[in-house]
Amino acid sequence: MPLRARGQPASDGPPWLPSQRTELKQPHYFLPFWACLGLLGAACVGLGSFRGTPINSSIAPDFRLTAEDGTPFALSEDRGKVVILTFLYTHCTDVCPIISDKLSMALDDLGPNSSRVAVVVVSVDPQGDTPQSVEQFAITHHMFGRWTYLIGDEGQLQVVWKEYGIAVTPVSSAGGEIDHSTRVLIIDPEGRERSNFDSDFAPQDLVHDVRLIEG
After folding, report:
1. Is 39 exposed, middle or buried, given 0-12, 13-18 or 19+ CB atoms closer than 10 A?
2. pLDDT of 121-147, one tens digit each?
3. Could you tell me if 41 and 57 lie in one domain?
4. What is the pLDDT of residues 144-202, one digit of tens each?
5. Whose CA, among 5, 31, 34, 78, lies 20 to 30 Å from 94?
6. Count: domains in the chain
């Protein structure tokens, strides 16, 4: 009689073939166990936490400005969507183009779900940002028709800058260089501030936080 490990059932076939019971038993009991562990790990990773700086979920201050096409706009109009709010100017030669390109990449990454996300830009250059410059800037950075770019006079814009902690200091004459704070703020569909990024954010981190808010 052939030897077998203690507890191993006798073979159903010839001694030189492996036990059919042993072959069937391992996939039936062990593979689902490891599959469950894998699914559990994936679920844990999927929950995650914000990659931007978490905010205390206070209601984002509402404001009314004019879009580049002359349409009146209120931030509260985008309730029900995740809003990405930032502050740019079209004659910027350093950080603003980079932020715009990253926003474009983030929307690309979101795919069809990007229709549930509203990107809102508030100008920090009341004299230099015109409907024409905004349109050209949006085309250059693949954001034409993908965001709402808000312009206005200095008095109107200063109110919004102050509400959101944006410091704006012109360095040269109109249409020239401007020093300003950079924020990329995510607001949830209920209008609450949830996550904040600096200008050096990675598009995939922004996408991650948007998806986390969407649930």
Report:
1. exposed
2. 999 999 999 999 999 999 999 999 999
3. no
4. 999 999 999 999 999 999 999 999 998 876 557 999 999 999 999 999 999 999 999 99
5. 78
6. 2
Q: Please answer whether residues 179 and 85 qualify as being in contact, where contact means their C-beta atoms are separated by less than 8 angstroms.
A: no
CA distance 128 to 114: 29
Domain annotation covers residue 60:
yes
pTM flag (> 0.85): no
Q: Both 59 and 43 in a single domain?
A: no
Residues facing residue 193 across a β-bridge = 187
- The CATH number for 193's domain is 3.40.30.10
* Gap between the Cα atoms of 92 and 104, Å rounded: 17
- Is 194 within 8 Å of 51 (Cβ atoms)? no
Residue 164: closest CA among 180, 148, 153: 180
Same domain flag for 121 and 80 = yes
Whether 6 is covered by a domain: the verdict is no
Q: Which two tokens stand for residue 10?
A: 């006798």
Q: Which of 6, 8, 30, 32 is nearest to 20 (CA)?
A: 8
User: What average pLDDT does range 94-119 have in this prediction?
Assistant: 97
Residues 6 or more apart whose Cβ sits within 8 Å of residue 124: 87, 88, 89, 157, 161, 166, 168, 178, 180
Same domain, 27 and 86: no
Q: In angstroms, rounded to a whole number, what is the distance separating the alpha carbons of residues 208 and 106? A: 10
Q: Which residue range(s) make up the domain with 109?
A: 53-214
CA gap 186, 82 in Å, rounded: 7
What H or E segment, with its residue span, contains residue 196?
Answer: strand 193-197
3 within domain boundaries: no
